[in-house]
């Protein structure tokens, strides 16, 4: 090539690269999370299922109870535009929606739902939206799927690909609760049909347990596209099936450029591997680049095989072969030898995943969303950057995370990373990129089968340049008697672009005044409820708002617990004098019988630090319920998957055996009392925890249940001291009668007494220090000079000595102890220590260092700060195991 031509080519290439960098500075570099803004469009939806974003920015939303709603972008209204009569029980209802690829012209909408009347079927129909409303008279029934009513796994996601093919995901319609939470393949005669998934997921002649692919036609019929799993002329197979071997493919996503199909597979519940049944449950993220069989009910995860199990003889016969899965069930009406099983793209159990540890632990409910391409939104200022090109967005309904997954050129797993890890998501249930390349997100909210306040429609926008400011509004007091002076604060409001100067505007609700100060004061003269709004605006006119509600007319009661002992620790068996004092301005003399006071002992089991900072007062039983995740299926008052706790309490009120009966139910599982749904056992919970949960439930409708009220003044015996993880919860609360049109206000006071020896890993904050895990110990490693660990809110009253268990490792240094802040008062310090200072006779990895500290009669944050006297690194650390506080 001539040199001049070569130079010209190189020059043009450089210009091209520079243009791309300038146009998209985040083409290859991950953007900061602060460049994304999650904006609430509407909240308080009633079980939202799927969404469709229209070209004008309006959004269609379906709710499981049969309603079709539209969010109107310009007016910011949510209106109902249609409804279907649906069968609402189990997991059925209005489940899936997709707009036609030519929706702007033909107004066709495809809905997958369970009709209320007639045969037990789920139905795919096409409707027409006429003058903005769903016209039910235009319904064309395209497909009906016979189902077994009353249990599980309906699937129901509906999506189009870029070629005009329509996909519908269908669950296995099989109960998971009668097979010990392994694979349900019960072939015994006379059993209900919904205990054998071989009749659905393993059956080539049944649409359930599959993802179908069809091509809708203008007249409302459909044809079969080339490349589906089974031939069209096979009497033992359904030609609509594209993917087979699904358990509950609840949400699917399709790469609009190449047709790759992604879905989240909600897996079985077994928590342990079984040598003679098969693997523990896993959720899966799956990818189909072509038609295939994906394993259920014979395999899970990366083709982990289940055993052929004889339920009558309770014998395991053989492991299934993923290369030639064989369905010999008498309930099978299709072919016997299924195609070889395709393993999952990503798989993870309840516990930590060996292959994908970044996915965390806990409940699972995998889902798949869209694949992003920046070039599809060329004229948008809020489109996501090229960093996300070709990545698929996957999410988990239970774990509340979103990940982006990158694939290799051969569409194999490459990498994944958490998307917006510091942002709160509440049960994400569907997502779709809008016409501007911003991400629309539906969140279901906390409780299953409930209209949740924390459900809603949101949009996530990206700002490559100037970013929207953040508004934070707070008040020195939010409730009180009139007149009420309030100091308002905008502290925390910020702009992520440092050159911006924010402008502030406060409006004081019905009071009618405003202020341009950052932190104004205002006195409310008259009783009432005032919504105070803060608007912050940056130099380019972008703004954000925040509200704080002020209630004037009712002074909150005061509740104090006078406790003559230390309020952080117990130091062995003891008798502690106490008195609960309650005052209320409007109520006057307070009835002691209306004051709630309790001291409960917990043997341990969940995060002490979190419990110590709860803002609302909860019973110990409700805390265990929250921590155990039971409210995903049960709520106190609102109907959900299972009965409400109020209903359970009412049903068993006064029954002498109720506690033992319900404890056994929770522990071992069961069903039949509240319908056909079976509750799985909770054998992982300690018996005393379950009993405490049952006490809370039974007391809801029986105020005299277990009523052993403590007097408001007396002595309390500290007796439970042998369990180092056990702790006492001391709490008192009072609800006043309300005044001047302001609702009753509750005030509570609480604190926790812990064992006086704190593991170092229970610190609240770390800097330059890390938690380390070995087979026998958990401890804190100080990895650099001036690294530290902070313990929050420690009562130092009567504390005069600390004993630190430590190991200097291969370095030398000391630990300085400060209170209040990193620059706060020094109350103690170890001498400079190395391994040479190990006391003679000390055994094990740790040896004690005793420090006399300056007496401090207050509650303080305590900082343990490492000061290095020799080289220190992440491999050569100074280590702290525990701190014992002594009187």
UniProtKB/TrEMBL annotation:
Disordered, as annotated region: 173-218
UniProt keyword Lyase, yes or no: no
Ranges of residues in domain PKD: 469-552
SMART domains assigned: PKD (SM00089)
Residue ranges of domain Cytochrome c in the record: 616-701
Keywords tagged on the record: Electron transport, Heme, Iron, Metal-binding, Transport
Alphabetical list of InterPro entries matching this protein: 6-blade_b-propeller_TolB-like (IPR011042), CBM6 (IPR005084), Cyt_c-like_dom (IPR009056), Cyt_c-like_dom_sf (IPR036909), Cyt_c_ID (IPR002324), Glc/Sorbosone_DH (IPR012938), Ig-like_fold (IPR013783), PKD/Chitinase_dom (IPR022409)
Comp. bias intervals (Polar residues): 197-207
Statement: the UniProt record of this protein carries the keyword Iron: yes
One Pfam family, short name: GSDH
Residue stretches of biased makeup (Basic and acidic residues): 185-196
Protein name as it appears in the record: PQQ-dependent sugar dehydrogenase
Organism: Algoriphagus namhaensis
């Amino acid at each position: 090539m001539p040199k001049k031509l070569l130079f010209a080519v190189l020059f043009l290439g450089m210009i091209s690269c520079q243009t791309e960098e300038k146009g998209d500075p985040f083409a290859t570099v991950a953007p900061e999370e602060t460049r994304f803004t999650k904006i609430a469009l509407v909240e308080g939806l009633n079980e939202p299922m799927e969404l469709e974003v229209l070209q004008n920015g309006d959004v269609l939303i379906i709710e499981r109870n049969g309603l079709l709603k539209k969010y109107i972008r310009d007016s910011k209204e949510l209106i109902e535009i249609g409804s279907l009569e649906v069968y609402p029980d189990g997991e059925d209802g209005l489940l899936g929606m997709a707009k036609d690829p030519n929706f702007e012209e033909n107004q066709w909408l495809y809905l997958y739902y369970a009709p209320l009347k007639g045969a037990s079927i789920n139905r795919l129909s096409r409707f027409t939206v006429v003058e903005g409303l769903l016209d039910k008279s235009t319904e064309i029934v395209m497909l009906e799927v016979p189902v077994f009513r009353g249990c599980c796994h309906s699937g129901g996601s509906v999506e189009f690909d870029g070629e005009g093919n329509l996909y519908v995901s269908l669950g296995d319609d099989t109960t998971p609760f009668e097979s010990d939470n392994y694979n349900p393949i019960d072939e015994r005669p006379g059993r209900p049909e919904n205990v054998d998934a071989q009749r659905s997921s393993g059956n080539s002649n049944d649409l359930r347990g599959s993802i179908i692919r069809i091509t809708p036609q203008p007249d409302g019929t459909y044809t079969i596209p080339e490349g589906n799993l089974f031939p069209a002329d096979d009497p033992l197979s359904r030609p609509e099936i594209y993917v087979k071997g699904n358990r509950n493919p609840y949400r699917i996503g399709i790469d609009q450029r190449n047709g790759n199909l992604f879905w989240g597979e909600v897996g079985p519940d077994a928590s342990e591997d079984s040598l003679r049944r098969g693997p523990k449950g896993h959720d899966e993220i799956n990818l189909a680049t072509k038609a295939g069989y994906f394993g259920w009910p014979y395999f899970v995860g990366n083709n982990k095989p289940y055993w052929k199990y004889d339920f009558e003889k309770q014998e395991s016969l053989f492991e299934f072969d993923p290369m030639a899965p064989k369905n010999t069930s008498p309930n099978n009406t299709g072919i016997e030898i299924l195609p070889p099983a395709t393993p999952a793209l990503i798989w993870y159990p309840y516990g930590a995943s060996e292959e994908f540890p970044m996915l965390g632990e806990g409940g699972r409910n995998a889902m798949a969303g869209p694949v992003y391409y920046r070039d599809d939104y060329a004229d948008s200022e809020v489109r996501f950057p090229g960093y996300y090109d070709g990545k698929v967005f996957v999410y988990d309904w239970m774990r509340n995370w979103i990940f982006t997954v990158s694939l290799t050129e051969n569409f194999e797993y490459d990498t994944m990373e958490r998307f917006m890890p510091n942002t709160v998501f509440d049960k994400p249930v569907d997502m779709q990129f809008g016409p501007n390349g911003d991400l629309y997100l539906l969140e279901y909210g906390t409780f299953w089968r409930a209209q949740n306040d924390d459900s809603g429609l949101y949009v996530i926008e990206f700002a490559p340049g100037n970013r929207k400011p953040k508004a934070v509004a707070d008040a020195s007091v939010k409730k009180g008697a009139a007149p009420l002076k309030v100091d308002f604060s905008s502290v925390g409001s910020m702009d992520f672009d440092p050159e911006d100067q924010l402008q502030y505007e406060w409006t004081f609700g019905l009071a009618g005044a405003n202020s341009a100060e950052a932190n104004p004061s205002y006195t409310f003269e008259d009783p009432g409820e005032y919504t105070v709004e803060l608007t912050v605006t940056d130099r380019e006119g972008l703004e954000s708002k925040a509200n704080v509600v002020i209630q004037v007319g009712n002074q909150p009661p005061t509740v104090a617990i006078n406790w003559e002992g230390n309020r952080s620790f117990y130091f062995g068996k003891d008798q502690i004098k106490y008195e609960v004092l309650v005052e209320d301005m409007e109520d006057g003399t307070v009835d002691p019988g209306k004051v709630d006071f309790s001291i409960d002992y917990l043997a341990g089991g969940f995060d002490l630090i979190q419990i110590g900072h709860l803002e609302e007062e909860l019973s110990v039983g409700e805390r265990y319920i929250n921590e155990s995740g039971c409210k995903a299926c049960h709520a106190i008052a609102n109907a959900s998957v299972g009965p409400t706790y109020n209903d359970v309490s009412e049903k068993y009120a006064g029954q002498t055996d109720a506690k033992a009966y319900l404890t056994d139910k929770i522990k071992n599982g069961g069903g039949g009392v509240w319908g056909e749904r079976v509750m799985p056992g909770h054998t992982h919970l300690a018996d005393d925890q379950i009993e405490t949960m049952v006490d809370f439930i039974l007391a809801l409708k029986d105020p005299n249940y277990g009523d052993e009220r403590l007097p408001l003044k007396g002595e309390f015996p500290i007796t439970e001291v042998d369990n180092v993880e056990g702790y006492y919860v001391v709490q008192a609360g009072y609800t006043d009668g309300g005044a001047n049109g302001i609702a009753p206000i509750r005030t509570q006071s609480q604190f926790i007494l812990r064992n006086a020896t704190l593991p170092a890993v229970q610190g609240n904050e770390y800097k330059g220090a890390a938690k380390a895990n070995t087979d026998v110990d958990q401890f804190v490693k100080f990895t650099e000079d001036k690294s530290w660990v902070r313990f929050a809110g420690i009562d130092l009253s009567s504390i005069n000595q600390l004993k630190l268990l430590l190991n200097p490792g291969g370095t030398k240094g000391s630990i300085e102890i400060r209170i209040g802040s990193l620059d706060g008062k020094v109350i103690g310090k170890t001498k400079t220590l190395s391994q040479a200072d190990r006391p003679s006779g000390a055994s094990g990895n740790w040896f004690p260092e005793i420090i006399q500290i300056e007496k401090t009669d207050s509650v303080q944050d305590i900082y343990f700060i490492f000061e290095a006297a020799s080289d220190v690194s992440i491999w050569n650390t100074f280590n702290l195991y525990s701190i014992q506080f002594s009187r």
